[in-house]
Structure formats: C-alpha cells, structure tokens
Amino acid sequence: MNLRTVFTTMVVLIVALVGTVWLGRGNGDLESPQPARPVASPDDDRPKIAEKGPYPKAVVDESLYNFGEMAVGQSLSHKFILKNEGEVPLEVKKGNTTCKCTLSEMKDNSVAPGKSIEIELTWTPKSAQEHFGQTATIFTNDPKNQELKLQIEGTANTLITFSGGMMGTASWSLPTMSSDKPVSYQGSMHTKYLDEFKITAIESDRSGLKASFKPLTPEELKEADAKSGYSIEVTADPTKFPLGGFSEHLTVKTDIPNDLSAEAHDHPEGHDHKHEHPAENRTFVIQVSGNHTGPIRIVPTFGVHWNPQSMVLNLGEFSAQKGKEVVLSMFVEGTEQPLEIVDQEISPDFLKFELKKDDSFQSKTKQRYVLKFAVPPGPPVSFGRTNLAKVKLQTNHPNAKEIEFRVQFISLKP
C-alpha cells in the first residue's frame, strides 16, 4: 500500500469518527424552539376597535390652542370640539393628562354619528414661564385616530409688576439720608391682567417708614402697558433710623384673591372681584433699603476695610494668638457739644471698643474722634456675614442718637 492510499484512508476514518460523536449528542443538546410571545394587547379600558367597518371618524378642527399671556396663579380654560363624522357611534375615553381635562356629558361615553362633545382643558401656572405646554390624551375607537393629542400652550407672567423689581419682587432704594430731613422714593405696582384691584393697606414695622398710594393715571397706565395699578410713595424719617445701612419691608395688602378661579378669569383680560374671604387675599412685600449717614462720617486708616453703606468693619483673617486692632476717624457735625456715649451694647463681650475726641483737630463745624476696635488674643473664633459682631451706641447727639457698627473677622489657629 503506497503512502497516498494510507493518508486517504486515515482522513476518511477521522471524518467518520467526528460524525458519529456529533450524532451521538442527541436532540437533548439542541435548543427547543420558544413559542412566539403574544402581541401585547391594548389596555382593556381603551375603546375596542371593530374588526371591520363601518367605523366612526373622530375630528377635531384644531388640536392646539395658545392662551397667549396669562398670570401665575390664574386658571384659564379652552374647549375643544370633538365631532363624530363617521357612520357608527364614536367611543371616547380620557387618557393621561398633564393638566385638568374635562369631558362634557355623553351617554355611555359615546358620541353618535353627526354629533359632537366638548373637551375642556384647564391650566393654572404655578411659576413664571416664558413658554408652557400641557397635553391631554383622548382614546377613541376610530382606527385612524386611536389616540388624540390635545394641547394648550402660552406664556405665564407674574400677576403684579413692580417698578424697580424683577419677577414680581420689588426692591426699592431710598436716597441717602444725610440730614434730619425726610427722604422719599416714588415707585409703582401694576398689572396687565386685572381690570381693577384695590390696595387695602400698606404696613411697616419701622415707625419712621411710611407709604402713601394713589391710582395711576391713564397716561401712566399706558406707559406701563398696564390695565390697573398704583403709584406708591415711600417716605423715611431719618430721626427714627439708626446710622448706617438698613433694609426694611413694606407689606402691601390688596383685595386680589389668592385663588384666581377659572370662572372669574375665562380670559386673561377678565377679572371678577366678587370674593368673600378677604383674609385669603394676596399680600406683596416691598424691600426698602437705604443708608443713613446723618451727621457722622467714618474715614478708615490705610489698609482698613470699611463699608459706609452697611456700617460694616471687616478685620479679615488674623492669628487668634496675636489678635488685631484697627483705628478709624469719625467726623461729627450738627452739634457744638462733645459727643458722649450714653449707653453701649457690645457683642461678643470680648470685643473692645474705644472712642476718643481729638482735641487737636481745628474746625468750626466738625469734631474729630478716634475709633479703636480690638480683638484681644484668645481662642479661634469666626464672625461672618450671618453672625456679625456688633457695637451699638446710644449718644447725646440730637440727630445721631443711635449708632451701630458691625464687625466681621476670623481669628485662626497659629
């Protein structure tokens, strides 16, 4: 037997052996075919689609309605008309919604051929939005319109706008109070959504802060692009304010109900004042800030950080082991008598304060005093923006009876 014949015989034997092993595996190692999963059926609650016609025909002239501009807290509604132009009754069911959706009454959720129903969508924005959109889904048994998407959209603005304010919040700044004469600020509050509203009162916890108001003139309303509003004059009496910066609040009470119901506002320009719960009416807050310099002027020495608007002295960071001391100059006008401290309140009590008259200073209208603030060596401590140290003085000056210094610092471990 030659070499070629031997080689051929061996190849045949190997192939036969492999085939035998493979056949011996049996069907147990083969994956049995899995049964096909049934196609998910639609929700049982949805109207059933007939297997053959005739069919209903769901028609909505417009599926999108734009409210335009509306106010935060105001409820507006729009009624979509759904008509059945088919040959058999149209079955209707409400699906998911992102707003309030109401279907008009119908028998057995069915709309007869040639008849129609109203679908009312209502939305009450909770915050100002440049653009909002809400959707309601309506299921039907129309095979071509099994899901109808109805949409409402628009822009939500703050109901009341203040001059000098943003997003309905008023922040007014009074002129600097440098003498004992009252200072005033003229502002306004108005709306483009209400035909009218009333300010019932303006209140303040600060006795020296008063406010008066009167309706805006037609010319002023036109300039503000408003339908109704008021001019508000805020007046501050310097004799009843401590020296330094201040921030006070005015509470404006109105007859505007907290709940701007859809019935009272079928349109952004509609308003109804027939409400029976004045305690639930809206109030607004005006933040009034200013600076009372009075007859006192503080001049810091080089390297000392002093804010005259807030009367805050910032000592910065320093070693608790060494402590820190700074000196400022205080010039006083409006009295010929030396400035005396009638009473003082210092917090924390380890903070040291000293006031000394500079007898060498020559002026016919002013007096100069040296102010010294010191934090003695001690344990590390921090007095930041939220817990400033304070030096509150009661003086004999007729126009500076109360002076309050605030001190910020952080003493660190060495």
Automatic annotation (TrEMBL):
<feature type="region of interest" description="Disordered">
    <location>
        <begin position="28"/>
        <end position="53"/>
    </location>
</feature>
<keyword id="KW-1133">Transmembrane helix</keyword>
<dbReference type="InterPro" id="IPR011467">
    <property type="entry name" value="DUF1573"/>
</dbReference>
<dbReference type="Pfam" id="PF07610">
    <property type="entry name" value="DUF1573"/>
</dbReference>
<dbReference type="InterPro" id="IPR013783">
    <property type="entry name" value="Ig-like_fold"/>
</dbReference>
<protein>
    <recommendedName>
        <fullName>DUF1573 domain-containing protein</fullName>
    </recommendedName>
</protein>
<feature type="transmembrane region" description="Helical">
    <location>
        <begin position="6"/>
        <end position="24"/>
    </location>
</feature>
<keyword id="KW-0472">Membrane</keyword>
<keyword id="KW-0812">Transmembrane</keyword>
